[in-house]
Each structure stands twice: as C-alpha cells, then as structure tokens.
Design a protein that fits this description.
This protein has 13 helices and 12 strands. With 342 residues, it is of the alpha/beta class. Keywords: Methyltransferase, Nucleus, Transferase, tRNA processing.
Length: 342
C-alpha cells in the first residue's frame, strides 16, 4: 500500500537498485496500479522550467480563480492515470500551437498603443489573452474581442489575472450587434423592448381573462409625469463603446481566428482596418483559407497575401541523447496574412 493506493510490486523482482518505475493504473481495480520500468524521467528542475511562475511563487496570485477542478474531479483524473500534459485538450483551443499563436501576434503587429480588432471563435479566449498581455498594463492600447455567441469565451483571459485597468481596455462584443449598431445607428435594446411589447400585446389580445384586461386598461388611463430610464446592460455599453472607438480611429491590426469559413468575416471587418495596416487569419484547415485567398486577390486594396503553415519541433538536448521530441503535434493550422491599402 502507498497511502490509499494499492501497488503491485512483483515487477521489481530481479531489477537493479535505483531502477525507476512508472505507476500504471489497472482498469479492473480502483486506485490499483502496476509498475513499469522507464528509461528516462522528468526531474524537478525540468518541471520547474516548464512552469510560467519560475522557480518560486513570487509571480503567483492566489485569488481562487486558477483552480477550477473539484476534489472529486482531481481524484478521477488521478485514477485515470493521465498526466497534466494529456489533460490539456488541444482541440479546445482550435489546435492553436504556440508557434502559430506567436506568428498571429507578430503579423497583426500588436503593440502597446492603438486599437486592435480580434474575431475569436472556439479557442477559449487564448488569442485575446495573448494580445492583451502583449498590449500590457498602463498603456493606451485597446482590444475589441468580437465573438459570434451570446457569451464570450473568456476562460483563459480570466486565468491570466489581469489588473482591472488592463481588463477594462478589453471589450467583449457580439459581432452581429456591433455591425448592426455601427451601420444602422439605432439602439439595440430599444428594438428588443419593442419586440417584447408587441409580444405582450399579442398575448393580451388572445387572453380570456377579462379582469386582467380591465386592470391594464385602468393603468393606461393614468398619466405618468416621471419616467425612470432603464439601466443599460453591460453588453450594450461595451458595444456602444466599441462603435465609438472604430468611428474615431481605424484599427492598427486585425486578427481572425475562426472555426467557420472566414470570407464573410473578413469582408465585414476589413473596412475597420486602417490603411497600410496588416491582417492575419487563422484556420485549422487549408481549404477555407485558399478560397479566401482567391477572393482577396481580386481586391485592389489588398496586397502581399501569403498563405502558409508552421511545423515546430522542439529538441531534447542532453549529453549523447540529443534528438527531436518524439511526441510532436503536426496540426498547427494555417495562416493567411496580408496588408490593406487605400
């Protein structure tokens, strides 16, 4: 027994002293493990070098937001025998590797000043967190994070523990509300209220409760001298602020990370990009970017189009054991870059 774990020790018979074994979970038994000999192990220094906090905890902020797993979930992961690297699902961030992410930041020319626009769908907020981190704190740079759904994906943004000042320069805005408010110039919330009033009138029209009708008619006879305006929701305030930003200045960089076909998104967001400024589009598949490349090639105000992919392979450097890492992801996606001119 090792704590609450049951270890089968018959594998150590006949082995040399100082032989290292790996605990392999047995499916038939709960918290039961067998031993398997391993030739290479990770030292404590190797693990510390992989941690973003370094060798100590000076850069760690304990605010209770980093650990999202419950005790039961942690025990289930331990019983499954998965390592920390295996638990991180690469598909949840759109197969966006660190080399593709770094080039996404470079080709969109993210700096500490200016306005930048990002469309993100399906990467848990990883590009927005990286771009906001590069913009930095106590700067004048702003980032508009456009998303297709009702709720933005901010899991990795919250994990960065940005300061309040830095977080306020990130605007999470629905792309459809943003475009409608920019071009139509009307209050989206008033439209929603009108729809609700019309629905209520239709319900009242088909209602059979005469007492309810009488009370509503009596209320309509009163004259209200004071009308208290309704408080605008946060999403509407951020949408209005984003529209004001793009009306006052053009964006210095545009980045698109999409699961869907990016052509319509590019055509909708290119007018907000300043002249002689770069844009970059990421997609996990090549074919949508090829079609987008051919359509953008026909535009006279788009130049220097380039479609490419990356393959990053890290190397293990040890005495007499230097070789490329065997487990390397080859699905890093594709990038389409270019410049917008007048």
């Amino acid at each position: 027994m090792l704590g609450k774990n049951l270890i089968q020790m018959h594998e150590i018979i006949g082995k040399r002293f100082w032989t290292t074994f790996e605990m392999v979970p047995i499916k038939e038994g709960k918290r039961t493990y067998s031993l398997r000999e391993v030739l290479e192990t990770e030292t404590l220094n190797d693990l510390l070098n992989e941690l973003p906090s370094g060798n100590d905890n000076r850069s760690i902020i304990d605010d209770g937001t980093s650990q999202k797993l419950s005790k039961e979930e942690i025990l289930q992961l331990q019983e499954s025998g998965k390592s920390g690297k295996e638990i991180v699902d690469h598909t949840k961030i759109g197969n966006l590797r660190m080399d593709s992410l770094s080039q996404l930041l470079s080709y969109s020319d993210i700096q500490s000043e200016g306005l930048y626009i990002l469309y993100d769908n399906g990467s848990q907020g990883l590009p927005a967190a990286a771009m906001l981190n590069r913009i930095g704190s106590n700067t004048t740079g702003c980032l508009i994070n456009l998303h297709p759904g009702n709720v933005p994906q901010v899991v990795l943004i919250n994990a960065m523990n940005f300061s309040k000042e830095q977080s306020e320069r990130l605007l999470n805005v629905n792309i459809y509300s943003f475009l409608r408010l920019y071009y139509q110039g009307e209050d989206i919330r008033e439209q929603n209220l009108d729809v609700n009033v019309n629905d209520s009138n239709e319900t009242l029209k088909h209602s059979t409760d005469s007492s309810l009708k009488r009370k509503l008619n009596e209320c309509n006879e009163y004259e209200f001298t004071e009308v208290i305006p309704a408080k605008k929701p946060k999403w509407l305030l951020e949408t209005q602020r984003a529209v004001e930003l793009v009306k006052n200045t053009k964006a210095r960089g545009l980045a698109i990370v999409a699961k869907e076909h990016p052509l319509n998104i590019v055509n909708a967001l290119l007018p907000f990009l300043g002249p002689s400024r770069p844009f970059v589009i990421y997609h996990i598949y090549r074919e949508p970017l090829q079609e987008t490349y051919m359509m953008l090639k026909q535009k006279q105000n788009v130049i220097n189009l380039r479609l490419f992919t990356n393959f990053l392979r890290s190397y293990q450097v040890l005495p007499d054991r230097t070789h490329p890492d065997i487990l390397t992801s080859d699905t890093g996606g594709y990038l389409l870059t270019g410049y917008l001119i007048q």
